[in-house]
Amino acid sequence: MQKIFKIAKVELNILFFSPIAWLVLILFILQCGLTFVDLIDARETSQQLGSNLKSLSEDIFGGNKGFFSSVQNKLYLYIPLLTMGLISKELQSGSIKLLFSSPVTSRQIILGKFLAMAFYGLLLVGVLLLIIIAAAFSIDNLDVQYLLGGVFGLYLLLCAYSSIGLFMSSLTSYQVVAAISTLAVLAALNYVGTIGQSIDFVRDITYWISIAGRADNFINGLISSKDLIYFLLIIGLFLSLTVMRFDKGRKQTSQATKFSSYTVLIVGVLIVGYVSSLPLLDVYYDTTRFKRKTLTDTTLQLINRLEEPITLTTYVNVLNGYAHIGAPKYRIFEFNQFSKFTRFIPEIDISYVAYYDSTYTSRDATIDSFEKEARKSAVAYGYDFNKVLSPQEIRSRVDLRDENNFFVRKVGYKGKTTSLRMFYDQIGYPQEPEMAAAIKRLLENPVRVGFLNGNGERDITRAADKSYYELTSALQNRSALVNHGFDMDIIDLDKSSKELDSLDVLVIADPLIPYSENQILQVKKFLDRGGNALIAGEPGKNQMLDPFLRHLGVEFDEGILLQESEKFEPDLVQTEVTQESKLLGINMEEKDVISLSGTTGIKIPSDTNFEITSILKPKYSKVWQENLPLDIKSDSLSYEENKKIEPQLAVAMSRQLNKKSQRIIISGDADFMSNGEIRRFNLTNRNSAFTKQLFRWLSNDRFPIDVTRKETIDNTVTINQKGIQFLQLFFMIILPVVLGISGIGLLIKRKRQ
């Protein structure tokens, strides 16, 4: 070891007695300083403009556009400049012969030179630590452990680049050629991951070899054993190749021996790397403060209930808009989307089935043109059309017409299956709430929600403004209850009286036609058995609901509630959840608005056997009531202090009945969960989240799955513009100038000596 340290010391002296080492260090400081100052300045400006910032540690340093990613994307430019002369200069000057004749081994020479580069890498790490210190003074409650994990990943990447540069330097006596060759090898290692992605075995090998994105897990809060082993193997491989290259000039061996040595080394590295990357052997450590890169305890408890691995079968319609992500060349990308789950269910069986069937754009196509279009699409995306199932073949296996023949996954467990869908939003892929809901559906029965239909009630199948499609049955809407453990049923009381018996929740929303005596009797029996229900009315149209409300001991007011507003019509009442509702698990932030478009108040009797909790209250106090009929646009309406009231807008009713807890929601507005209100563009409301929490309470807290985490605490930029200007001055001028003067002084001193 002593000889290795001596060689490293000599190499560092040579490195710092040249301008390259100083220039690279100064450029690295300028790059890091400029990037960090720009990022923190953008957040400080947003904060001054009133934006609510969240998780600034990850926001500024992580992600594809964060500080660490910027450093990673440019790190490869510095290393060839530093490594190009490590051995090339020895070959060029002839001093290599002195090394060969000295009492040191090839391994000691190579390790000494690599150790010098590793030490120089620590100087670059020191620059990153300076940035973290600056961030600690700029961000409240900085997540330091997370940032240190990212720095560790970048240091491993730097060492891997250095080992590659060291090897390339041993192949030529020309330093420029060594630098260019190093860049070429790094480019090849980044590109190789795209080779053979349509072939299963080849895909796994080339993806493991690729160095592209290898530090991504580190810089995003996750230390993975497969990534750590990869870096160690790459460093060991290129250092071993360099030692073998050196030994070639010192020992006489046959070509067969050399070939077998190289083969054993490379194959051994590939085998160890491939095995270590298997999900069953992969170990992770979450470096984030609140373990944000790990599944929540709620989901982990569900996974622990599994007695055998689940299956995940992806059905890809080659005519669907998501056909490209189901293509073979996107398999690695696909697998990575479920990495959070494969960490804890490594035996999960993931498979793909390609098919073609009717879509919205091809329903009326002829059979010949239909198949022709499918063949063209399959070839374009890289599918083997001979393995693409026809409509008849796929329907004999699984009928996906209920899924509109969209891209859909079927999660299977013990003979049961449930759907896991893609969504039309920025993320697209199902996340933890949807996946957890799918697993729980397989372990338990889903919650059946029945919507009365036949008397003009709100529809769950139409996209009209007054209907409930978006939040109930929209398959490609992430927020829809159907994607969170609920089954939606349309109930026609005239067709079957037994349909109500199997329901967990009954919804009666804004009927327009009076119910018959038989229909009323059926609903009353459901309520008397302890059935859970949501009853929502509309001002002036509540006589149809009176039989049910009186049966429960409540009633609606006769008029309509109005709220004074400069921006909106007075019948739009902006509300917020009450403190009491939080005891029911209905938790919203203080700033959240739940909008009611035309609502009436609820009268609560004093003598009731229900425990009643008010769940909504006006967000702004100037609320009054007007009698109907009323023309909102033409009638002169104004708030007067003597008209002020504190109405009950929505209440939760609960009681113990038939040895179970009965839960009922009464709302004076049926629009709060309508398509139009959810899509409201002139007011940012939280009706969707509020509705989901209501149904969680109605389902006895079974669904949707609660995967909420601790709130982040690094949400405030504590530095001002003057402080940012100082950081800019320090990193862009003071520190580079000090290093530049030091480097120039050292170079002048050496020249004089």
TrEMBL record:
Transmembrane region(s): 12-37, 114-139, 145-167, 174-193, 228-247, 259-281, 726-748
A GO cellular component entry from the record: plasma membrane
UniProt entry tagged with the keyword Transmembrane helix: yes
Pfam family, one: ABC2_membrane_2
InterPro entries in UniProt: ABC_transp_unknown (IPR019196), Class_I_gatase-like (IPR029062)
Keywords carried by this UniProt record: Membrane, Transmembrane, Transmembrane helix
Boundaries of every ABC-type uncharacterised transport system domain copy: 448-682
Protein name: ABC-2 type transport system permease protein
Provenance organism: Leeuwenhoekiella marinoflava
